[in-house]
């Protein structure tokens, strides 16, 4: 992509990442984001005490160690967050310090147990009285994990709808500790073969421009991704407007989209479809 290396991230709750067979030369780093760790126990909130909710029976420390041994450039992250309106980020103002302490302790334990490299913040539903609560809690969590050398990678994953209220301020206040901003396309409606790619790009630009190009990843949050996602991604990659892409993958889905196909598509002649008249 214009002679540069890119990041490819897979979001998964199972061991689909172990099925990768070849890493294209244009991919500098494979990232696996395990979904999710949550501070909920099935009954209610545990107030910052995070629990792994990926399939720990098949994604265990040995599986992760073997994968990282096979692909030395691979990084495995724990993704904290929620899916739509389930398991929201919800903290009372008088619980902020206690939440940060509990989250730091529990996530440190998970990261060390599974030999993980970083954290991804992927909250779609945030229920707080003041956006500053989210910014402070998540920012201090990331900062502490970084300063304690528990992690080497920190990522935030907004969508367009919630970016301005929460994630933009989070990055502004803690940008020195945040390595990637993964913008999900989940709110771009009706992404089909008939969608005008210029319109999609114009809708993305204002949000992407809030972050440094080297940090930007573009993601799609449903399975499988539509062809236009790859067209738009190729355009942005070829202009060095983003530094990589991310997708959700699960072996148990009836629409299973193997991660190897994704990497192969990025190398395909699909780029010829990516002629764009928009000004990037």
TrEMBL record:
One of its GO terms (biological process) is carbohydrate metabolic process. InterPro entries: GH, Glyco_hydro18_cat. Residues 5-280 form the GH18 domain. Transmembrane segments: none annotated. It comes from the Eukaryota. Coiled coil: none annotated. This is GH18 domain-containing protein. It comes from Glycine max (Soybean). The gene is LOC100799179.
């Amino acid at each position: 992509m214009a002679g540069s290396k890119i990041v490819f991230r897979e979001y998964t709750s199972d061991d689909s990442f172990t099925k990768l067979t070849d890493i294209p030369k244009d991919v500098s780093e494979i990232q696996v984001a395990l979904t999710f760790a949550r501070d909920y126990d099935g009954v209610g909130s545990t107030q910052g005490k995070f629990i792994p909710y990926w399939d720990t029976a098949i994604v265990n420390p040995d599986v992760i160690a073997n994968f990282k041994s096979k692909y030395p450039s691979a990084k495995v992250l724990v993704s904290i967050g929620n899916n739509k309106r389930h398991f929201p980020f919800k903290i009372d103002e008088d619980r902020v310090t206690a939440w940060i302490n509990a989250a730091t302790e529990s996530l440190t334990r998970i990261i060390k147990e599974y030999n993980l490299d970083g954290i991804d913040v992927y909250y779609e539903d945030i229920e707080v009285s003041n956006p500053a609560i989210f910014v402070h809690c998540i920012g201090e969590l990331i900062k502490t994990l970084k300063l304690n050398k528990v992690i080497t990678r920190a990522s935030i994953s907004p969508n367009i709808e919630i970016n301005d209220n929460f994630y933009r301020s989070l990055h502004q206040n803690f940008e020195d500790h945040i390595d990637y901003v993964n913008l999900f396309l989940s709110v771009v409606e009706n992404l089909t073969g008939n969608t005008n790619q210029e319109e999609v790009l114009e809708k993305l630009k204002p949000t992407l421009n809030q972050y440094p190009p080297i940090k930007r990843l573009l993601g799609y949050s449903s399975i499988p991704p539509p062809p236009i996602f790859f067209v738009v991604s190729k355009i942005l990659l070829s202009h060095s407007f983003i530094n990589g892409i991310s997708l959700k993958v699960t072996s148990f889905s009836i629409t299973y989209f193997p991660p190897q196909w994704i990497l192969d598509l990025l190398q395909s002649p699909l780029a010829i479809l990516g002629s764009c008249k928009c000004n990037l």
